[in-house]
Description:
Helices cover 23% and strands 31% of the residues. It is of the alpha+beta class. It folds into two domains: 5-95, Jelly Rolls, CATH 2.60.120; 110-149, no CATH class.
Amino acid sequence: FQVMDNFLIQVTGKKRVVLYSPQDAPYLYLSGSKSQVLDVDNPDFEKYPLFLKAKRYECYLEAGDVLFIPALWFHNVISEEFGVGVNVFWKHLPSQCYDKSDTYGNKDPTAASRAMQILDRALKTLEELPEEYRDFYARRMVLRIQEKAYSTDCQ
């Protein structure tokens, strides 16, 4: 996914594009900005059982086609034949939200990056507690995040 909106313009050749909504992130087994499920056509459901819940959107692009890929949408692009594609990214959030060195929308917005760092520190701090306490307080943290940060239409 990218944090910027994107037009994928197919100049020549043909591509298949598989997309997943940001709301399906809990089912995509994320590692950084990528899914651990590398083969979306033949996933290992024993290893990735939640992937079954992810809603797949698929299309084919041929020469002259343009696909709008919204920010945060996960996408898997497979070239069906040799071709040329062009991506055009643009920022739709205020410029201070983006990392100044991020040309292609691959870095998290600065506020999200800071929040992840704070979360990592909080989780490291919880390691000082015995397991049952760590589990209890981690679950409380998850509930607070759901309560305070989740959009009501994403639950």
